[in-house]
TrEMBL record:
Assigned keywords, A-Z: Membrane, Transmembrane, Transmembrane helix
TM region(s), chain numbering: 72-100, 112-134, 146-167, 188-207, 227-244
Superkingdom, taxonomy of origin: Bacteria
Presence of keyword Isomerase: no
Gene3D superfamilies, A to Z: lambda repressor-like DNA-binding domains
Alphabetical list of InterPro entries matching this protein: Cro/C1-type_HTH, Lambda_DNA-bd_dom_sf
Signal peptide: none
Protein name: HTH cro/C1-type domain-containing protein
Domain HTH cro/C1-type: 7-61
Length: 253
């Protein structure tokens, strides 16, 4: 299989910068550096996307992977684990919960779903433009990266603040259903989780760039998956709220 130096060579031959490759793989530039230095290996989906972006014929690689008896599974799951598909699934599921809340006139489910969709959509669509703006404004790549991560942290803190305010505002409404109340209170904690992951990611990036020391490298290696965990928790919480409300309606019949 390909090692870090091979990936670097392929990228350079295609005339693609590390920053551009990071955007195409929906990750940060440091992750690209880690792949090329052999600190960690890209997932199968990212490897295939890397080569596809560089316009490399994937047939020989697919044949090599097939020899390990893993290719059918990997090729089948490429689209499933794509960050874009994950984003569409996330927003789609939240939209379904919002629709349920509107139909059932369940204000809490509708409200939480719409706010979560809005926060995610704003962050997802604004990050690339924000990074491009910073890169044109600031020449120091380290400063650009630090501000970029702080921008993500700010969105998580904003989410925490909004949902905390909603919980306090609707305290008596939620108190009518203790289970619903407990589920709602989980949402702000998930945004604290997001902020913590990105903060640790930022700390490790900074000290590695400054001192070449990666004691928190696990947050680079698994950063994408850790973010997916938070997204899954939001989906699970909203689905649990829907189930709880349906059970409540059946008991009332």
């Amino acid at each position: 299989m390909l090692d870090g130096s091979d990936l670097k060579s392929v990228r350079k031959n295609a005339g693609i910068s590390q920053t551009d490759m990071a955007k195409k793989l929906d990750c940060d530039r440091r992750t690209i550096i880690n792949y090329e230095q052999g600190v960690c290996e890209p997932k199968a989906s990212q490897l295939f996307r890397w080569l596809s972006v560089c316009k490399i014929d994937l047939k020989p690689l697919a044949a090599q992977v097939r020899s390990t008896k893993e290719s059918l599974f990997l090729l089948f799951t490429l689209t499933i684990i794509s960050p874009y598909i994950a984003s569409v699934f996330y927003v789609g599921t939240l939209s379904s919960c919002a629709l349920y809340g509107a139909i059932r006139k369940q204000k809490s489910i509708l409200q939480i779903s719409l706010i979560a969709i809005t926060l995610y959509t704003l962050e997802f669509n604004s990050l690339s433009y924000f990074e491009a703006f910073l890169s044109n404004l600031i020449n120091d790549q380290l400063k650009v990266s630090v501000i970029y991560y702080m921008f993500q942290i700010a969105f998580s803190i904003l989410g925490y603040s909004i949902f905390t305010y909603i919980i306090k505002k609707n305290h008596w409404h939620y108190a009518e259903n203790p289970r619903l109340s407990n589920l709602v209170r989980v949402i702000p904690l998930i945004y604290i989780y997001f902020a913590t992951i990105v903060t640790l990611h930022l700390i490790d990036f900074y000290i590695d760039e400054k001192y070449n020391y990666t004691f928190l490298s696990v947050f680079y290696t698994h950063y994408e998956n850790l973010i997916y965990i938070g997204m899954s928790l939001i989906i699970f919480t909203l689905v649990a709220m829907v189930v709880s409300h349906e059970k409540e309606l059946k008991r009332a019949v």
